[in-house]
What we know:
By secondary structure, this protein is an alpha+beta fold. The chain has three domains: 4-51 and 220-349, Reverse transcriptase/Diguanylate cyclase domain (Alpha-Beta Plaits, 2-Layer Sandwich), CATH 3.30.70.270; 100-206, Reverse transcriptase/Diguanylate cyclase domain (Alpha-Beta Plaits, 2-Layer Sandwich), CATH 3.30.70.270; 360-399. It has helices at 4-14, 30-41, 56-67, 90-99, 115-125, 145-161, 174-188, 232-239, 241-258, 280-296, 309-317, 347-358, 360-379, 386-399, and strands at 17-21, 45-50, 77-82, 103-108, 129-133, 137-142, 167-171, 193-198, 201-206, 223-229, 262-264, 272-277, 301-306, 330-335, 338-343. The protein has an eight-stranded mixed sheet, with helices on both faces. Strand 7, helix 7 and strand 8 form a beta-alpha-beta unit.
Amino acid sequence: MVNSLSKAVIKLTTGLTPISVGTKFFPTDSMQNEYVELFNYTQTILFELEKADINSESIQSNLIRDIGAENIPAEFNFYEIKPAENKIEEYALVSNIVMGSDRYFYVELPNPSNLINIFVKIIENEKGEIVEKSSTELVAKMLSKNDAIRVAIELIGIGLERGVEVISAVGMTGAASIERSINYRQNLGNFPGVAFTKLGGEYALVFEGPFKLSKSKPSEFQNYLFVDLIDSTGYTSKHGKTQLVDLMTNIKYFIESECGGELEGYREGGDDFIARFPSKDLAIRAGLDAAWFALDNDAKIRAGVGRSRREAGERAQLVDNLGSSSPLSLVVFELANGLYAYNVPSEFTRTLINLFENEKQKLIGVFAFVFIITYLLSVLGLGAFSFITIIIALVYALVA
Length: 400
């Protein structure tokens, strides 16, 4: 969250609506702790550019788009077990970014069957990893939630062809997927289907009769990140061409080695590139890392995440059309059917935010000092010099 004073100042200087400053996410390992510290140290701001309308209909529509209509049969029932809240929770977003989109899914057969071994081969062919297996159950790990749901639908279809009712559920962990399967049975019964979460709500796809799909495959759209250095000419004039090359090379290396990105069309010494990722959370994380690293090197980037190269580039270009007082270092991405962005603010903006968020007593003292001294100067007929008091107070606040 962000307090009202910080929100007013941020909105005044950027023309954008902030959802949060930093993060309230609680880390549980060293990697998560590193990211949470970066979010909070840099006072990274989450902006809402276009508000998402989160409801059962939009979640179903987005699911079909992300899974691919060709991977879902024409006849199915979509159930809302628990509705999602119509708002974006920043800590849930951070959780997805730092914990990754790897998803586990649980598959259960009503009776022991060799079908379970067929399922294992299909999952492994889809680059999944079998975690546990018995004659009636298995837990597998997939690259993303969408892949897990897509493969679960394929397995359910194979089961229905053979008269076997397969129940599946997707979760952040193996235990969570099993628990979601239990909730599915309690709420909907023993019908073949797959349960999953989207934006805090719980949903399920239920299939009443056999269906035949063509070979299930990931949606044509991938996950792309477009990165462009803001005012590279000015940066080169100030720091030199060598430092520009070093900056972009280091960002490129990190994206390839740590984020699983594959760069396309990168020119040595250039100021922009596009990279492809196996999941959206990795693309957003890479954009954030690039923005944080650029800030540490006195630079700003504009970045966009999209399902195609063009979409990623268009979102990066949105930075140029925002009514902020200066170019913002932004990472723009879609969430549900809305548009959001992370901003790594400048040193001056971070200082102001820190005052409003964490140094309220100091801020009150500064205003009291200005008021009292200005009043005394006015009484002494020296009111024209009151502006000096304001300058002294601002210098003290920034330095202290």
